[in-house]
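**Fold in tokens:**
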Amino acid sequence: MVVPSRMDNLPQTATEAQSCGVPVVAFNATGLPDVVEHQRTGYLAEPYDPADLANGIGWVLESRERRRRLADAARERALSLWTPGRIAAAYADLYREVLTRP
């Protein structure tokens, strides 16, 4: 999945791709570093450098074994960060914190 966003807080297309075990290539900007771990779950290109974005696409595609490793790591990361139970618990913690503030 290529997410060439210039302004995006936390692109759901990237989190959904990783949830499906798809590596993500994106710029190392905005909210994308929160989604992609460079060369572990995808590739983060220099911000707004189309040549480096193309390099990242090539890097992901050039090795079947690398793609498999990236895909497995992407799925594992998605399960650890973005499952409904994990998100619901984070919201519940935040609500409890807000309710206990003076």
